[in-house]
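Practice record 12: protein with zinc ion.
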Amino acid sequence: METRITVDGERLIADFMTLVSIASHSREEMHVASYIRGAVEELGFAVTEDDAAVAVGGTSGNLIVRVPGDETRPVVLLMAHMDTAVPGQGVQPVRKADRITSDGKTVLGADDKAGVAGLLHLMRALASGAVDPHPPLEIVFTVCEEIGLLGAKALNPSALRSRYGFVFDSGGDIGLVVTGSPAQAKLRAVLRGRSAHAGVSPEKGISAIEMAAEAIAAMPLGRVDDVTTANIGTIKGGYASNIVCDMVELIGEARSSDAARMQAQQSAMVAALENAARRRGGIAECEWLDSYPVLSVSRDAFILDVAAKALHDVGVQASFGATGGGSDANVVAGMGIPVVNMAIGYQQIHTLEEFILLADLHRAAELMIAVVRRCHEIQGD
Ligand SMILES: [Zn+2]
């Protein structure tokens, strides 16, 4: 099967350089969204913007491009996010012999503009007929991925027809297919004691700081087991050395790729707080907020086969793995849509040293085309 399509490398690089130059911190994606919209409409595809801007309090919603295709095939979802990590304002991309970097003052934003550029490139190939025949596609550009997958969470699942999908937003070498990533939940706990003068009448006080110390010491934290992690990230409270502290606020999190262990971990953290409060005569107020659901693709899922074949088409051996971080793929998986997150070659993400090799930028775009071609082999039911 001939799946190689020559990617116009210079056009791709130019697109990428333009995209990274357009600042798009989370909630400030308006300008990059309008650039994408212009490019897509020029190709003749319909773009809709959903109402995620309201949900996230930002300047743009998610963009959804519907590309008609062979209706005997299931609709496929392809995704990348438009926002970047900070500092991402005034990015000056520098093209070197084999790579593109920033000027060292900002991130590059290849996370995830390399995904965006690749998808624009794919659409150019689709518009030219070079990828025919292909299944119908829903190509989604999300907002606010970097601040808790807020854009993906604001997507209306009933607006999507996709039966399975691919997110192009993992760092590292092309070939990695992320098939697992834990669910995350955030804890906010307030411990209340009673203030008193620390020198005159300490016995009248109930120290929330001592309560917190006892609770945290009793908690399973760090790498709790092979699929579970937990952390207390911030602790705030107190006024002065001579006042018994009456209130402490703790912010923490738990992650697990196993639902039962997640539940057990959350209960254990709450129990530690409540026990400490009870023993010392104080009060613990604990609140968990689910951040995002688990991504867990089974080894025999057809989608892994599609990913592996597409990678093979671009000359790379697939490797499947799990990661501790979340991505839009977690949210899509939570909608019941089978999905994987594919590495597209950007390196050193969220640092001023972030870069992407020209060869990887090129290969990522080729990979997206190969994925769509391989998806056409998947029959509807
Ligand atoms: Zn990303």
